[in-house]
Specification:
The chain is an alpha/beta fold and 397 residues long. The chain has 13 helices and 15 strands. Strands 1, 2, 3, 4, 5, 6, 13, 14 and 15 form a nine-stranded mixed sheet that branches. Helix 1 packs across helix 3 (86-102) and helix 3 (86-102) packs across helix 13 (378-395). The chain binds glyoxylic acid and manganese (II) ion (MN) (2 copies).
Length: 397
C-alpha cells in the first residue's frame, strides 16, 4: 500500500529544471500534499487537525495524553528525491491501515503527524515545525524568517490559514506525545553494507547552518584591472576550499557549501556581495569550533582582497542519542535488526530531548539522498511499513 500511496503523489511538485521534486512549505505542491494526507487520514477514520505551527495531526482515539505518535514530513530540498519525508508519512498511513485490518484496538491514542518545513528549504531553518512546537526556536525569530522572495514566515503562514500571532512553543501539543517513532528512507549506504532492509536509529550527529556574506565592490569585468578589484567571489571560493580542508582534518566531520549567491549575478559583472551557506556536521559535537576555523580562513581571504565578511548562525543542533529504552523495544519487536547512526537531521531528533523518540530506516540501494537518485525498493518499502505497524501495535498496548 505504501508504494501505491507514493505513486499517487508522484507528479506533485516535480521540478522540471533541477530534476526530482521541489516541495517547499506552504507552496502549491506542499499544500496539495497536505490535502492528500488529510483526505487519506479521514478515509482511515482519523480525526485531523492543524496545530498553531502548521503541523498536521491525525488521531486514532482521543488527542493524547501518552499518545504513540509517528510521522515525518512532506516538504523536500530543492530538486530532492521522492522518499525523504513522504516515505515516513505514507508508511504511517499504511501502518494505521494494517492495524485496522488486523483488528488491532490501540490501548492508548495513536497519531500520525506531518511536520512543517523539515528541510528548511524555504525559510532556511530545518525542522522549523518541530522546533516551534518544542520552543527550540522563538516565535518572533520564526515569524521574521524570510524566503528568497522576501516573504516572511508569518506572511506565508497567514496565507496558508494560520494565525501568525499564535505561532510558537506549544506545550499542550508536545505534552500529548508519549513516544515518537519516525520512519525514514536511509540517506547513506549503511543498510546496503549491512545487508538489512530495516534498521533502528541510534544517533544523529551535531549539525548547523551558517550564512557568510562577503562584501566587496561591484564593477566592470573588462574595464577593472585585476590589481584594482575587490572581488568577493575570491574569498568565497577560498572559503569553500578551506571548509573542505578543515573538515577533512577533523574526525568524521562534514562541511558543505551547497548554495552560493552572488549579487547582482552578471557574467560580465564583478559581484558586489557574495552570500554562501555552510552546512557543518561533526559527530563529537564540535561543530562551532569547526565553523570558527572556517570563519577565520574566510576573514583572512576577505582581507587579502580588500573585502569584508559577516558570519551568521542560522541554526544549530547538538548530537542526539535516541532513547535507549525505546530503541531496545523496537529492536525486540523487530527481532534484532541493526542499529544505525546518521549524519542527517530529523524531527525525531528535535523531539528527542523532550519525549522518548526513535527512528526506523529503510534501505536505500543507491545510498544517495537529497537528489533524484534517492530510492527504496518496493519490497523494502512494504517491509518498512510492516515493521512500523508491528512497532506501533506493540507500543499502543
Ligand atoms: C535533512 O535531511 C538534513 O539533514 O539536512
Ligand atoms: Mn532531507
Ligand atoms: Mn527527511
Amino acid at each position: 500500500m505504501t508504494s501505491a500511496l507514493l505513486a499517487e503523489i508522484g507528479d506533485v511538485g516535480r521540478d522540471r529544471t533541477r530534476g526530482g521534486y521541489s516541495r517547499h512549505v506552504f507552496d502549491g505542491a506542499e499544500l496539495e500534499l497536505r490535502t492528500w494526507f488529510l483526505a487519506h487520514a479521514r478515509r482511515l477514520g482519523l480525526d485531523t487537525e492543524t496545530d498553531r505551527n502548521g503541523n498536521l495531526w491525525a488521531w486514532w482515539g482521543g488527542q493524547g495524553p501518552d499518545a504513540v505518535v509517528t510521522g515525518s514530513h512532506l516538504d523536500s530540498v530543492p530538486g530532492g528525491g521522492a522518499f525523504d519525508g513522504p516515505l515516513g508519512v505514507a508508511s504511517a498511513l499504511a501502518a494505521v491501515r494494517a492495524l485496522r485490518d488486523r483488528g488491532a484496538v490501540p490501548g492508548r491514542p495513536l497519531a500520525v503527524v506531518v511536520f512543517a518545513e523539515e528541510e528548511g528549504g524555504r525559510f532556511g531553518v530545518p525542522c522549523l515545525g518541530s522546533r516551534l512546537l518544542t520552543g527550540a526556536i522563538g516565535a518572533e525569530a520564526a515569524r521574521r524568517l524570510r524566503d528568497q522572495d522576501g516573504r516572511t514566515f508569518a506572511e506565508a503562514a497567514a496565507g496558508a490559514g494560520l494565525d501568525p500571532d499564535r505561532i510558537g512553543a506549544d506545550p499542550g501539543a508536545l505534552g500529548r506525545i508519549g513516544r515518537f517513532v519516525e520512519l525514514h528512507v536511509e540517506q547513506g549506504r549503511g543498510l546496503v553494507d549491512l545487508g538489512s532492509p530495516v534498521a533502528v536509529g541510534s544517533t544523529v550527529i551535531a549539525h548547523g547552518r551558517w550564512r557568510f556574506t562577503f562584501t566587496g565592490q561591484g564593477n566592470h569585468a573588462g574595464a577593472t584591472l585585476l590589481r584594482d578589484r575587490r572581488d568577493p567571489m575570491l574569498p568565497a571560493a577560498a572559503t569553500v576550499t578551506a571548509a573542505r580542508e578543515l573538515a577533512a582534518a577533523a574526525p568524521d566531520a562534514r562541511a558543505t557549501v551547497g548554495r552560493i549567491v552572488p549579487t547582482p549575478g552578471g557574467t560580465n559583472v564583478i559581484a558586489s556581495t557574495v552570500r554562501l551557506w555552510l552546512d557543518a556536521r561533526v559527530p563529537d559535537g564540535s561543530t562551532h569550533a569547526l565553523v570558527e576555523e572556517v570563519a577565520g580562513a574566510a576573514r583572512v581571504a576577505a582581507a587579502a582582497e580588500g573585502c569584508t565578511v559577516d558570519v551568521r548562525e542560522e541554526s544549530a543542533s547538538d548530537t542526539v542519542t535516541f532513547d535507549a529504552g525505546l530503541r531496545a523495544e523496537l529492536g525486540g519487536v523487530l527481532g534484532g535488526v541493526p542499529e544505525l547512526a546518521t549524519g542527517a537531521g530529523h524531527d525525531a531528533a528535535i523531539l528527542a530531548p523532550h519525549v522518548p523518540a526513535a527512528m526506523l530506516y529503510v534501505r536505500n540501494p543507491t545510498g544517495i539522498s537529497h537528489a533524484p537518485e534517492e530510492f527504496a525498493e518496493p519490497a523494502d518499502v512494504e517491509r518498512g511499513a510492516a515493521a512500523l505497524a508491528d512497532v506501533l501495535e506493540h507500543l499502543c498496548r
